[in-house]
Structure formats: C-alpha cells, structure tokens
Amino acid sequence: MNSNRWVALVLLVGGVAGRGIERAAYGEDAPNNLVYQIFVRSFADSDGDAKGFGDLKGVTQRLDSYLNDGKPDTQHDLEVGILWLMPIFAADSYHGYDVSNYLDVNPQYGSMDDLKGLIQQSHQRGVRIVLDIPFNHTSVKHDWFKQAVAGDANMRKRYFFRGVEQPLTQGW
Ligand SMILES: [Ca+2]
Ligand SMILES: [Ca+2]
Questions:
Q1: What gap in Å lies between CA 104 and CA 113, rounded to an integer?
Q2: Ligand lying nearest the CA atom of residue 48
Q3: Residue 113 pLDDT > 70, yes or no?
C-alpha cells in the first residue's frame, strides 16, 4: 500500500471514528460531518471521453455505490456527509485553481445542469456539497485580470504586480 493510500485510509478511519463520537454525543440526529474530498477530474468518468476525464455525472453515479446511498442501514458505502469538490469552474490548468470564469463549469466536467443534478441527488441522500472556489487568484484569461492589465485602476488594486514595470501576463 503506497503512502497516499495510507493517508486516505487514516483519514477515513478517523472520520468514521469521529462520526461515532458525534452519534454518541448527539444521537442519530447528529449531523454527518464526514468529509470526502474529490478531485473530479480523476474520480469517475461517466461518458468515456477520449482522455477519460472524471466528471460531475461520474460523481453522481457513485453516490449509491460508493459515497452514500442515503440509507444508514446499508454498509457497502462510505456514508460520507460532505463532498468537498476541488475547483470545477472554467480553467486552463488540470488543477483548476486558475479560474477564468467563476460562473461556468469546466466543460470537461459537464454542465451547470450536471452540477445542479449532483447537488440535488446528494441532498436527497443527506449529503452536502462544498465547492472549492479560489478567489484569491485568477487565470490571466479572467476578465478581472484582463481589465487590470489594460489599466483599469479599480481592477489593478485587486492584484499584486511586483517587480515589473509592465504587468505579468503569465501565471498567477
Ligand atoms: Ca468524462
Ligand atoms: Ca449506506
């Protein structure tokens, strides 16, 4: 078993133990705060695209079989209470932390309707969704950054331009 799997196993066992403590303290009505973080790109591919990218429908399809079927009496699933999705917004990088549009889902992962479907299906099973929304930096293709580079004083105040006369146009 490699080190990543050991870390995942330790986190999962810790989360399950924590769930037991919550139930002992608050009874069966205790909120399920067991968090499972998902890198959507590699989690589950629903449509067999050429590169095999994981997608939002893939996550939805794994609710009943793997994540949480909404039935505490079944034991085949992880019974997670919160799905923490790494950035799923339009971005140019594989990790998604350089968002070019916070109002759009990365098309490699599906559509806004797919996201709504995942949220709806998760809520039906008592699972909450946390979205990782990195506002502290943007893609160089984001309109805010383009406006800053073009000289918009208000937008320039939102970025740090250090050590250069001209704003950088690469990286974040
Ligand atoms: Ca896919
Ligand atoms: Ca279950």
A1: 11
A2: 1
A3: yes
